[in-house]
Amino acid sequence: MDALKGYFMALQNFSVNDGDGIRTTVFFAGCPLTCEWCANPEGLTSGLKIAFYESLCIKCGACVKVCPNGVGMHFNDERERLKCNTCGACVGACQTGSRKSLVVQYDVSEILKQIERQELFYKYSGGGVTFSGGEATSQLPVLKALTDALYDCGIPMSIETCGYFQYEKVEPIFKKMDLIFVDIKHMDDYLHLMHTGVGNQKILNNIQKMRALKIPVIVRIPLIDGFNTDLENIKSTARFVKKNFDDPMIELLPYHAFGNEKYQALGIPVLNESLSAPNKVLTDKIIEAIISEGVTLVSYK
């Protein structure tokens, strides 16, 4: 197990938005989707990622001195990034935090040691560990090893997933979860493809199969104004959830642009700068439409 390594964006302790109680959220890097509203662009692919926050740079040159490939201070220049081998030497040398590792590599035992330090908080708050991303199922061997180890320790687990995976390979992992969050971005296959890079049929089929698990499933809808906020799509989503679960639940996640700074720091363009969240009037109508279809609206905010 110690030799099994994975790529992670972060371990976030004291999280309260991804399940019950106080939790540790483990963010895996790598995702089969390229959603235009993604707030974690560092997690779109697996592999080490170094960000450069130019506003924090004081031009001291410490990063240049330690770089084995002669990368200059202007790291977001594409020519400079092409020289980088993501060794992270510059991150250690930077005194102002202008260079940061947004994706790092850990082996399974390192993750488990970090989780072990938080067990007391899980015990007294009813919390546990949440696997997120990126997409946690994109690194199945690592996810399975962590799931098996935590299950044997009796630590409650939940998972957040985009739903795009080979179900038969993921099902044994799901059976050890206490709660599953899964996204439905849009009920229309073509629009889903245009805005996320993949169609939705595999996702919807996987969601239908989850019913047999007899584990609570919460369907999440990221609310992107003008993309999926029309009431017919919302009602169609709610009907699908109602049809496929004995205890149908939906959580709404309004769009935010908090991740846009990361795009700049990684030297990549924002996928769509025109996105926005629906206003309160429309949001209230969306909430009313979901409840009218007999689906429970939940929130972990």
Explain how this protein is built.
The structure is a single chain. With 301 residues, the chain is of the alpha/beta class. The protein folds into 2 domains: 5-47 and 103-298, TIM Barrel (Alpha-Beta Barrel), CATH 3.20.20.70; 54-97, 2-Layer Sandwich (Alpha-Beta Plaits). Helices cover 35% and strands 20% of the residues. It has a 10-stranded mixed β-sheet. Strand 6 (157-161), helix 7 and strand 7 form a beta-alpha-beta unit. Helix 10 packs parallel to helix 12. The longest helix has 14 residues, at 231-244. The two termini are 35 Å apart.
Summarize the structure.
The protein has twelve helices and ten strands.
Query: What overall form do the CA principal axes indicate?
Result: globular
Number of separate helices: 12
Oligomeric grouping of the chains: single chain
**CATH fold naming of the largest domain:** TIM Barrel
Per DSSP E runs of 2 or more residues, the count of β-strands stands at 10
- The order of strands across the largest sheet is 3-4-1-2-5-6-7-8-9-10
**Main sheet properties:** 10 strands, mixed
Helix fraction, binned, reads 25-40%
Structural class comes to: alpha/beta
Topology readout:
Blueprint: E1 5-15, E2 23-28, E3 49-52, H1 62-66, H2 78-83, H3 89-93, E4 99-107, H4 108-116, H5 119-125, E5 128-132, H6 140-152, E6 157-161, H7 167-174, E7 179-183, H8 189-196, H9 201-210, E8 217-223, H10 231-244, E9 249-254, H11 260-265, H12 280-292, E10 296-298
Parallel strand pairs: 2-5, 5-6, 6-7, 7-8, 8-9, 9-10
Antiparallel strand pairs: 1-2, 1-4, 3-4
Search tags:
301 residues, TIM Barrel, Alpha-Beta Plaits, 2 domains, ten-stranded mixed β-sheet, 10 strands
